[in-house]
């Protein structure tokens, strides 16, 4: 199918479907129930940028910025940019040890309910078989449809398959290579891989450096091809789609995708950042950050096991599993879901650090998952002195949770209270459940500690619900299951 035919197909699906390409229609979107219940997913940044394994997944941009550490590193290790450019990493991206079933087993053990590989990052290299570009893993590098293999493996394990597209930023991503004698001087020399390499805009200017119609149509078709060929249940977008030029094409994509979901009988959703979508037309995502308070709408945060990079680098600075578990508990208590990123090596192996973190999270969820999966928020998300900083890029530092910080979820007739840092003395005081509390006037039937055989002692007065244990010890959050009448 040529470009004109594909665009006509997109318009025809919008014309005949329930959803139209306007915000009024798109706000009829309903968040899928499975998505709200899943709570925990895996994000995967893996691509050609995993070969140099330096700096971050922005290496293809930064290696062309003269004077940057990535530029100097490239000169030292690979030589002159005209002789060895980013394209020359493609044959080195072999994925020779990649086993989709092995990945799926690990993600299942981690307790994830959905998995979201990056199908195309800013570098413009597609991790799947495509009819739009020759620069993809089926024709180059591994010579395999990596995304297709992942979809089959994940769905076999009962994991919901999703995809992510970061294509929008490719408009300017390779542009710095035009400023000196590099292999990007003539972008079209390497087809659509380096094209268009336009000047990088001020990222705060929503109207600056608008992409051409040709580029926007190409972007739309690439996104719709992913929908048609891989049927993802969630489609994630990175930033820059919130700029003015993308708005008409975003609406077209959303209408097309939502109508395809109706056709498949599979409830689907879109993730977005900033205000790319009208509120209520998709699911908002907070990059590397959280909300300070409970939200009445479902939301997602995406963050990574490493603080410094989304992809694998040789010097990743990792978070602890306990820190990530606390974030998961906090996010779920506020009506959110955690999408946690890992970065595999270029050969397809998952680093031990990533693997161990996932397995530790899975071990905790195996015991405490009933307080996470299929739960909803309570009247208050929690209590305690720690204030979570709100907004994106706020997870650089470990949050200093205390033994007074407690988070709540609810399911059926059970209220779950997760103590973020369990006290050595074994006494927990929950003020939100005190007699006369504005949050609770009911009857407590029974209290148990998930994962421990000890039956705690408890009493309730006008100050707090006090729970006492003598043998409960844990570096991760401890969950009390409180049965109500």
Report what the structure shows.
By secondary structure, the chain is an alpha/beta fold. It has 2 domains: 3-287, Glycosidases (TIM Barrel, Alpha-Beta Barrel); 382-484, Immunoglobulin-like (Sandwich). It is 26% helix and 17% strand. The protein is built from 12 helices and 17 strands. It has helices at 3-16, 23-26, 33-38, 59-62, 69-77, 100-109, 146-156, 170-173, 213-230, 247-264, 321-333, 352-368; strands at 40-44, 114-120, 160-161, 163-165, 234-237, 269-272, 283-287, 299-304, 336-342, 382-383, 406-411, 414-419, 427-430, 444-449, 457-460, 465-468, 478-484. It has an 8-stranded parallel barrel with strand order 1-2-4-5-6-7-8-9. A 5-stranded antiparallel sheet has the order 10-11-12-17-14, with helices on one face. Strand 15 (457-460) and strand 16 form a beta hairpin. The chain is globular. The termini are far apart.
């Amino acid at each position: 199918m040529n470009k004109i035919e594909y665009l006509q197909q997109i318009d025809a699906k919008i014309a005949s479907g329930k959803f139209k390409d306007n915000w009024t229609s798109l706000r009829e979107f309903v968040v899928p129930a499975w998505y709200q219940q899943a709570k925990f997913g895996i994000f995967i940044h893996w691509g050609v940028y995993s070969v140099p394994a330096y700096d971050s997944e922005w290496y293809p941009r930064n290696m062309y910025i003269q004077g940057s550490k990535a530029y100097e590193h490239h000169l030292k290790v690979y030589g002159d940019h005209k002789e060895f450019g980013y394209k020359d990493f493609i044959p080195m991206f072999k994925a020779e040890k990649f086993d989709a079933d092995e990945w799926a087993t690990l993600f299942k053990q981690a307790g994830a309910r959905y998995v979201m590989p990056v199908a195309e990052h800013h570098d413009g290299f597609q991790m799947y078989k495509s009819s739009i570009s020759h620069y993809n893993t089926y024709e180059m590098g591994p010579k395999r449809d990596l995304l297709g293999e992942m979809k089959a493996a994940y769905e076999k394990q009962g994991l919901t398959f999703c995809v992510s597209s970061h294509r929008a930023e490719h408009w300017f991503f390779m542009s710095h290579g035009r400023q000196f004698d590099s292999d990007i001087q003539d972008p079209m020399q390497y087809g659509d891989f380096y094209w268009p390499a336009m000047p990088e805009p001020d990222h705060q200017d929503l109207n600056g450096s608008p992409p051409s119609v040709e580029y926007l149509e190409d972007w739309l078709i690439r996104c719709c091809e992913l929908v048609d060929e891989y049927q993802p249940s969630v489609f994630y977008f990175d930033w820059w789609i919130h700029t003015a030029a993308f708005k008409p094409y975003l609406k077209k994509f959303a209408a097309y995708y939502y109508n395809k979901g109706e056709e498949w009988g599979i409830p689907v959703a879109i993730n977005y950042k900033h205000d790319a979508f009208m509120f209520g037309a998709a699911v908002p995502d907070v990059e590397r950050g959280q909300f300070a308070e409970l939200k009445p709408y479902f939301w997602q945060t995406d963050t990574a096991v490493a603080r410094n990079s989304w992809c694998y680098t040789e010097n990743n600075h990792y978070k602890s599993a306990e820190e990530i578990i606390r974030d998961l508990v906090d996010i779920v208590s506020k009506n959110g879901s955690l999408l946690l990123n890992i970065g595999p090596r270029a050969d397809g192996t998952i680093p031990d650090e990533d693997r161990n973190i996932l397995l530790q999270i899975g071990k905790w969820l195996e015991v405490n998952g009933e307080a996470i999966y299929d739960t909803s928020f309570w009247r208050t998300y929690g209590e305690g002195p720690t204030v979570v900083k709100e907004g994106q890029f706020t997870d650089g530092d470990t949050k200093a949770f205390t033994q007074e910080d407690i988070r709540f979820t609810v399911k059926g007739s059970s209220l779950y209270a997760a103590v973020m840092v369990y006290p050595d003395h074994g006494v927990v005081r929950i003020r939100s459940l005190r007699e006369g509390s504005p949050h609770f006037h009911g009857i407590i039937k029974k209290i148990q500690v998930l994962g421990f055989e000890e039956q705690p002692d408890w009493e309730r007065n006008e100050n707090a619900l006090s729970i006492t244990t003598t043998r409960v010890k844990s570096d991760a959050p401890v969950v009390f299951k409180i049965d109500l009448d």
